[in-house]
């Protein structure tokens, strides 16, 4: 059967459409303590983040609504965020202005009717997750019950180790995401003695099915040409892997071998129009009592993510010249599904109608890697 080819224009420029009304990881939350303020760029929005005295995280647009100076230049006492220019003070979770020092007893202005832009912000898996609404949505309370659940990696017990990795990518979020789900680059980009070799390429057959806002690579025995999976064989239990992709940017992987498990959530988050950041959070109870297992996993994990990062930097050089790109079946079918899912969600947002999933049912894909 002839291979189906799809050509696409390089989605590299500022016209790339972002998905709003969802949660994105803004930064690691471990640095948010005491009266510390931190800044982050998320979807082209400058943020200031911190932790109130009660432990609750907050995220505000890093701009005072009075004269636009970054609020991160001011002071935070654990309760209020004060602008350094004129002393306007804000409760940062709601964004409500509590004080305008320049007002006199003759002024009729009520400061509490003024709000800086605050975003719902929650802590999961050591990240500050920020809900970014579509422009014009109005003020959203941090305790809004209609918001979708905050993402997190699945856990299968209370005793586990965890680690995180991050890398900046010089490409827009579309290229970052289709790189994340690409099943054929492993033997080339990640070619190494501890992962796999080019000579290990063989044909694979995987079954996919639609799930809400995404698709799933159904539970299967992982490839025998990946060294980390071979390590799980020491437990003598059947090994299964399930991989989900969920809009707007999340890849979940769960590996089970009896009562031993590994899970991860990987996100590709747009920071500005032509840049994004990949974050990986992993949790596991495999080799729980083995000394230095976290350090070893971190070392190899950084190497793995670094290989993707270098490749994306090199790809960005080629994308500068706006080439026409080509997606093939079956190896690039997940990328096609991503673009179709994104279009369907944006269409549903625009029309107010339910999202129409582009997958009609289970699909079997075959490729070599």
UniProtKB/TrEMBL annotation:
GO-annotated molecular function: 2 iron, 2 sulfur cluster binding; metal ion binding; oxidoreductase activity
SUPFAM superfamilies, per database record: Bet v1-like, ISP domain
Keywords: 2Fe-2S, Iron, Iron-sulfur, Metal-binding, Oxidoreductase
Lineage: superkingdom: Bacteria
Pfam families per UniProt: Rieske (PF00355)
Cross-referenced PROSITE patterns: RIESKE (PS51296)
Keyword DNA damage annotated: no
Domain Rieske: 23-130
Name by which UniProt lists this protein: Rieske 2Fe-2S domain-containing protein
Organism: Alloacidobacterium dinghuense
Lineage of the organism: Bacteria, Pseudomonadati, Acidobacteriota, Terriglobia, Terriglobales
């Amino acid at each position: 059967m002839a291979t189906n080819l799809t050509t696409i224009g390089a989605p590299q420029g500022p016209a790339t459409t972002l998905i709003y009304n969802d949660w994105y990881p803004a930064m690691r939350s471990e640095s948010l303590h005491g009266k510390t303020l931190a800044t982050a760029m998320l979807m082209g929005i400058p943020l200031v983040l911190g932790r109130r005295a009660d432990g609750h995280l907050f995220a505000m647009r890093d701009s005072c609504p009075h004269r636009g100076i970054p609020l991160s230049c001011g002071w935070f006492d654990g309760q209020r965020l004060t602008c350094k220019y004129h002393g306007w003070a804000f409760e940062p979770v709601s964004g409500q202005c509590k004080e305008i020092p320049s007002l006199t007893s003759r002024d009729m202005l009520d400061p509490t009717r003024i709000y800086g832009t605050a975003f719902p912000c929650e802590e999961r898996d050591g990240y500050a997750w920020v809900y970014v609404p579509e422009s014009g949505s109005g003020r959203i309370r941090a305790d809004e019950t209609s918001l979708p659940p905050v993402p997190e990696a699945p856990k299968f017990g209370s005793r586990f180790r965890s680690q995180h990795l991050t890398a900046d990518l010089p490409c827009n979020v579309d290229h970052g995401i289709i790189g994340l789900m690409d099943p054929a680059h492993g033997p080339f980009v990640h070619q190494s003695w501890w992962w796999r070799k080019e000579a290990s390429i063989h044909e694979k057959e995987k079954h996919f099915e639609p799930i809400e806002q995404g698709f799933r690579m159904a539970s299967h025995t992982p490839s025998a040409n990946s060294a980390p999976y071979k390590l799980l064989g020491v437990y003598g239990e059947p090994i299964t892997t399930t991989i989900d992709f969920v809009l707007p940017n999340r890849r979940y992987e769960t590996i089970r071998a009896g009562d031993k498990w590994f899970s991860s959530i990987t996100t590709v988050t747009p920071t500005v129009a032509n840049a994004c950041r990949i974050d990986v959070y992993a949790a596991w109870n495999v080799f729980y009592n083995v000394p230095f297992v976290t350090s070893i996993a971190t070392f190899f994990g950084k190497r793995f993510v670094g290989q993707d990062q270098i490749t994306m930097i090199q790809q960005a050089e080629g994308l500068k010249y706006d080439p026409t790109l080509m997606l093939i079946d079956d190896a690039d079918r997940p990328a096609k599904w991503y673009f179709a899912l994104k279009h369907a969600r944006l269409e549903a947002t625009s029309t107010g109608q339910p999202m129409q999933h582009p997958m009609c049912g289970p699909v079997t894909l075959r490729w070599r890697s």
